[in-house]
Amino acid sequence: MGRPRILILGGTSEARLLAEALAARGDGDILLSLAGRTEKPAAQPVPVRVGGFGGAAALADFLKAGGYQLLIDATHPFAERISANAAFAAEATGIVAIALRRPEWQRLPGDRWRDAPSIPAAIAALGPSPRKVFLATGRQGAHHAEAAPHHRYLVRSVDPVEPPLGLDHVDYVIDRGPFTLEGECDLLRRHDIDVIVAKNSGGGATYAKIEAARLLGIDVMMVARAPASTVTAVDTVEAALAVIDHLFPPARKRGV
After folding, report:
1. What is the pLDDT along the chain (256 residues), one digit of tens a residue?
2. Superfamily the domain 113-223 falls into
3. In the chain, what are the domain boundaries?
């Protein structure tokens, strides 16, 4: 079998680590696709394309035209549209697809979580009394806070929220993880936060805010993930590599 052609839908640390591992092997043609929502994306170890495909059918056309044999959805656990498009494109083309999804965070003793099915539901659940809210859902979900302007918000995102929120009481922090427990505790104390709105993204890069909330006795409105797509999922880079090895067995050295 020739060199496999693999398209990785990325934007996560897992996607970068998988691309690094495949690049080190040097026995495949790898393309990493980024949505282009981050202004200064991290450097990547394989060729990169930036921007959307124009929908599920266009993604299917891209896979066929490029002769790809494997599609790996390693996007953010809350990138629901592209994941749905990936599932459709794989089925439409007959190309094998897998999803690389980090495990969800699990509630531990001391956590004060309240589950919410969406960011709007989490905002609504904050209640009628003014609260000091750390909105840690990223800039794309930040506008939902405008539905509850009586709260004071601290919004953290990798890139600026544009346009700024139409709120009288909002502060912004531009920062990129990984974050430390000490740093998160300091942030929460400085802004006198009493509740965090967070997505259950999983992984270690942003978990420190959940640890800090547990330590400080702060409530967390935890936004749940949408139901998983029909694409077969693995939860580690190592497991993804094992699937790739099964699909495209590496050449074995012949005995002399």
Report:
1. 568 999 999 988 899 999 999 999 888 899 999 987 655 666 788 899 999 999 999 999 999 999 999 999 999 888 889 999 999 999 999 999 999 999 999 999 999 999 999 999 999 999 999 999 999 998 888 999 999 999 999 999 988 999 999 999 999 999 988 999 999 999 999 999 999 999 999 988 899 999 999 999 999 999 999 877 788 999 999 999 999 999 998 765 434 3
2. NAD(P)-binding Rossmann-like Domain (3.40.50.720)
3. 5-103+227-247, 113-223
Q: The tokens 């969406």 sit on which residue?
A: 118
Residue ranges of E strands in 158-229? 170-174, 195-199, 219-223
CB atoms within 10 A of CB 129: 7
CATH number for region 5-103+227-247: 3.40.50.720
Residue 2, C-beta contacts closer than 8 angstroms, at least 6 positions apart: none
Rounded to two decimals, what is the model's pTM? 0.84
AA letter at 65 = A
Alpha-carbon dihedral 203, 13, 19, 233, rounded to 10 degrees: 40
What angle separates helix 13-25 from helix 237-247, to the nearest 10 degrees?
40
